[in-house]
Structure formats: structure tokens, C-alpha cells
Amino acid sequence: MTLVARRVDFAVEKCPTCYGKSLCNETMSRLYVAPYPFDVVGVRKIDGEDEKSVIFVQEPFAHSGTRHVGSGIQSFFRCPTKRLERRIVALSDVNGNGDVTMKEKRTLATTLKADRESILLQLFPKAHGWPFLQYHGACGRVLVKEHGKHNLMYYVNESKDMRVWLAAQLLQIAFLLSDNNKNWAIYLPELRLDNFVLSDDGEVLAININNAIVVDAMNFASQPIHSKDEDPPLGDDIEFNATALCTGLHRDHNFIYMCRAVGRLLRSMATSSGNPLSDHVRDCMFYRSETTRIDAARRLYDYLISLLPSGEDSKFFK
């Protein structure tokens, strides 16, 4: 697909009330005269149209004046800490010298207000192992993010090996986001199959992460990951208890809903009682007082890995 100048309004002249200029110098000429270099291209305005392919986000929001960056951070992240605030503000430090100008702060404020996901994609980049889409950059009022291929609902009737491999990746994501050596916990509000995609390089990635809760786990690094003593109602609605998540009291949110997504993906394979896979899926999906939900997820993950063809990697399933 070729992108021509008349189809894109970068509105660079409206900066600093824009998303930034990180792509302007490198790719502006290619954007105008050549097929786009980052895969398939699609356009979405901030008013809520569905995302398509790689995303250009245009016309962010009607905004005048300067918004205080600190208040934007407080309202964006429900569990604010100084470490998190420093990381967000550092995104505006384009020169890397610690001197953030008022123009750069206004650009950050625009993005905090209009497109939270792009901030998260920069804070937790795919290149550092986080299971999210790649953020390519911005030019004026245009944001460019990676194209997410098919969501996982597309694969519910695929081969057993394919679904087992995808389910194992989903559980890996739950473990990574809940407990990692970076001491960040990220709790996702959308943990259904249609909120995960399979990338061209065979990775399962989370999408629609705008309302994720980011928690600085250094505040309670010595605490175990507790399980809730009851299951939330079955259904599509996902419940958040921000206070419990922020304080580390309950930290198994990702496992509760990821286990349900795995159960849906493996439904036709895990139906009969006494089937080891069925038992592991059931233990993962429903709380049992004699074990923790995290332990059940680990046992399910280990069992899924044992079912995969030995010696095969993700390329086998593409």
C-alpha cells in the first residue's frame, strides 16, 4: 500500500501540542513518496475508529494551553510513584541531558491525554522483551505503531499443537507482567483472546493496553504474590481493585483472567473429567484453597510445554 502526501496531515506546525517529531527527520521523505517501510499501513483518528494495521493516529484532541505533566501522570497511572514519574518524564528528554523544555513537556502532556498506549509502549518496549506492539515513533499529530496480525480468536479452531503453543505463550505473558526482574507489575484490563495478536515473528502480543495499571513492585518486592480467596463472576467483564493492586495485597489479577482465556482457547481439548489437561485448566481457572492460582498456572504451563513437539520452535507453527 502506497501512502501519498495528500492522505496524511502531519500538522507539525501545531507542535508542541502534538505527539513529537521522532520520525520526521528519518522517514518523512519516504512517507510521502514511497511505500511505507514498516509493513502494512492503516489510519485511525483519535475519535474511536477501529485500528487497522500499522496505526497513524491523527488529530489527537482539541487542546489549548499547557497541561501540568505531573497531574497527567497522576490521572494516567493509578499507582503513581517517583520512579514511574521519572521514567515518564524521561521520555521527553530528547537530548538525554536531563533538561526537559516546556515544549517537550507540552508534547508529553498531549500524548498522556490523547494516547496512553503509546506512552506504555515506550516505557515497556518490545525490544526489551515486553509482550506489546512496537512503537515506531511520531511526527506531528501522527503516531506509528506495529501492525498486530490476527487476534487469537482466529486460532480457536487451529491444530492442537498450535493452540497449545499459543496457550503456553499466554501464560508466559501472565508470569512476565506479574513478576519480573525489572520490578514492574502491569495489570491488563483486557485479557480476552481478541486482545492478543500473533505477530509475524511468532510472538503473542497484548493490544488495547490503554488502561493498564502499572505498579512499582519495588514497594513490596519482598511480599509473595497472593491469591484472591474467591473467583470473580464468569463473563466478559473484567474487575479491577486498583487499591489492592497498588498495595500488592492482590497480585494474581493477570492469572485469573489469562487462565480463562487459555480455557477458551483449549476448550475442545479440555472437556472430559480425568483428562490431565482438563484438570490443569480447571485448577487454573477456579480458585482452590489448597493451592495458589499462580502455582496452578505454573503446573498448567509445564504440562502444555510437555505436549509440544520436542525440538520445535515458533517457526513450526507460523
Task: Explain how this protein is built.
This protein is of the alpha+beta class and 318 residues long. The protein has 2 domains: 9-145, no CATH class; 152-317, Transferase(Phosphotransferase), domain 1 (Orthogonal Bundle). It has 10 helices and 8 strands. The protein has helices at residues 24-33, 69-76, 82-90, 102-114, 116-123, 160-178, 242-247, 253-265, 276-285, 293-307; strands at residues 41-45, 54-58, 135-139, 142-145, 184-187, 196-198, 204-206, 213-216. The strands form 3 sheets. The protein has a 4-stranded mixed beta sheet with strand order 1-2-4-3, covered by helices on one side. A two-stranded antiparallel ribbon has the order 5-8. Strands 6-7 form a two-stranded antiparallel ribbon. A hairpin with a 2-residue loop joins strand 3 and strand 4. Helix 2 packs parallel to helix 4, helix 6 (160-178) runs antiparallel to helix 10 and helix 9 (276-285) packs antiparallel against helix 10 (293-307). The protein is globular. It starts with 23 loop residues before the first helix and ends in an 11-residue tail after the last helix. Residues 1-7, 26-68 and 313-318 have low confidence and may be disordered.
